[in-house]
Amino acid sequence: MRILCMILDQLPIEVEIQRNPQLAKKPLVLLRPCNQRVLIAAKSLHDIRINPGESRRSVEQRYPNAFFLTATESLYQKKHTQLKNILGRFCTDIESNALGEFFISTTMLSRIFKSEADLCAKVVQQIVAETQLPVTVAIAGNKFTAYCASLQANPTCTIPMGKEADFLASLPLTALINPPSELLRRLNTFGIKTLGEFAQLPRGSVVRQFGPELAHFHDMACGNDNRILKPFTYPPTIILSQTLTNPLSDIQPTQNILHKLTTQLSQRLEQSGYHANALTLSITDESEHSKHINTSIKPPTSTDIRLQRISSNLLSQLKNTYPIIKIELKAYPLHEWHKNTYQIKLFEQHKNRYNKHALQKTIGSLKQRFGEHAIQFANNVGPPKPKGLRVHCDPAGIPSKLQIRKQTYMVKHIHQHWRVQSQWWHNPIERDYYQVNISDGRLITLFCDHKETWFLDRAVH
User: Fold this and answer.
1) What are the tens digits of pLDDT across the range 338-378?
2) Which end of the chain is more exposed for a tag (fewer CB within 10 A), N or C?
3) Domain map of the chain by residue range?
4) Cα-based angle 130, 134, 137 (whole degrees, multiple of 5)
5) How far apart are CA 393 and CA 399, in angstroms?
6) Which tens digits make up the pLDDT trace of 62-92?
7) Rounded CA gap, 196 and 170, in Å?
């Protein structure tokens, strides 16, 4: 499968520059109106490491020349939706996990456009013609490579099949998706600073040094990413408002209107399958002066009763705001609970001391926080056992084709080969592992024991 990635890097910044071109030369920092904390900072401030959520005062102390601007989040959401709708003319199945970031499959599009370069150019041409925003587009054999290539594109880029590792080799380790700081620290200690240097390490050594749960970072550095495309839309901030014909000076009618907005908000959240993890209330008086107040919601929720209680409490904290002519309620939905999550630590105590009560308490906490669908019960705890396979090898003993569920697949490319030897003094184990791409596009791991019996290693899939 070939994947197209389209990115508008720093979408909020680009939208503000489009509104006022003079901002392009300023060290721009966008602040959320509700709490005056950083939403995003311009790339020129990258070396200062201004992070989202920092207070304005903290930024001013570190960089007094920063230019602050109140963010218009509803406008950014509209631009994101506009980009998605334009890309939807090329492919309706779109994955979008962040503002200004989109992935689609090019399988069907390859029959329409004469080349991948032509497809990239047409997408950019369409976006720029309708939005005048500087998007970049890239096509590669997997999501990670396509994402990195899109960030480097000017404005388009295509990575040929089999050249993913060559393209990624010069990129820094920070190009990895959410790499643990401990992984970066230890690799830096070893003098490893680029993806190419990381990829040169044997996979078996990486597993022994960092554990199997971090081995996928090494796979990405090698140009392998077996994450499939999942049509998913970044949850926009939900904004509900009501403008009043007659100004309200009494709190009770204001409470009634707020409760109606909260009920609508709860319904929107439940329909989309999200929970709100923050809530902002804004009210505007007759003089067009607005006041904002917000709070985080722990644990996140979509229930009407809790949202009404929280919004009523926010309203009671706003003083001297009557008469009111507009009420606005804004919710920040929580992303799907499993995004970028690999493992949850279930027990604080020693693993040999946990009990049924602790497990029930943990499961109850997860259900309360993420909803009923966050938990699936299994009969066995632990990695699945290897599955026997029928594998045909070439004269050199290298796998060339295999059979899974009575379906035959050709081995297109072998990415890694390593040998594991252990327990020499008691029941010795010797296995040859192969990480391969098969004809349906999947990346799987096989191994063969000393009896020349082949298995699918399901523990890594």
Assistant:
1) 444 444 444 444 445 556 677 777 777 776 666 665 665 54
2) C
3) 3-158, 164-221, 238-333, 387-460
4) 95
5) 4
6) 889 999 999 988 899 899 999 999 999 999 8
7) 6
Range of weakest confidence among 76-80, 128-132, 200-204, 417-421: 417-421
CATH number for 3-158: choose from 3.40.50.2000, 3.40.50.740, 3.30.70.270, 3.30.450.40: 3.30.70.270
The arrangement of strands across the sheet holding 38-41 comes to 38-41, 28-31, 67-70
**What predicted TM-score, i.e. pTM, was given to this entire model?**
0.62
Token pair in block for residue 311: 């919004």
Report the C-alpha gap between 444 and 275 in whole angstroms: 35
CA 314 from chain center: how many Å?
31
Asked if 198 and 219 touch (Cβ cutoff 8 Å), the reply is: no
Q: What is the pLDDT of residue 442?
A: 80
3-state secondary structure the chain: CCEEEEECCCHHHHHHHHHCHHHHHCCEEEECCCCCEEEEECHHHHHHCCCCCCEHHHHHHHCCCCEEEECCHHHHHHHHHHHHHHHCCCCCCCEEEECCEEEEECCCHHHCCCCHHHHHHHHHHHHHHHHCCCCEEEEECCHHHHHHHHHHCCCEEECCCCCHHHHHCCCEHHHCCCCCHHHHHHHHHCCCCEHHHHHCCCHHHHHHHHCHHHHHHHHHHCCCCCCCCCCECCCCCEEEEEEEEEEECCHHHHHHHHHHHHHHHHHHHHHHCCCEEEEEEEEEECCCCEEEEEEEEEEEECCHHHHHHHHHHHHHHCCCCCCEEEEEEEEEECCCCCCCCCCCCCCCCCHHHCCHHHHHHHHHHHHHHHCHHHCCCCCCCCCCCCEEEEEEECCCCCEEEEEECCEEEEEEEEEEEEEEEECCCCCCEEEEEEEEEECCCCEEEEEECCCCCEEECHHHC
Superfamily for domain range 164-221: 5' to 3' exonuclease, C-terminal subdomain (1.10.150.20)
User: Could you identify the residue written with the tokens 């066995």?
Assistant: 380
Tokens of 128: 């720029």
Look-up: residue for tokens 């499939």? 228
Determine the length of the chain. Answer: 461
For the stretch 28-57, pLDDT in tens is: 999 988 778 899 999 888 777 888 888 899
The CATH class, in words, for 238-333 is: alpha beta
Going by their DSSP bridges, the two strands 136-140 and 156-158 should be labelled as parallel
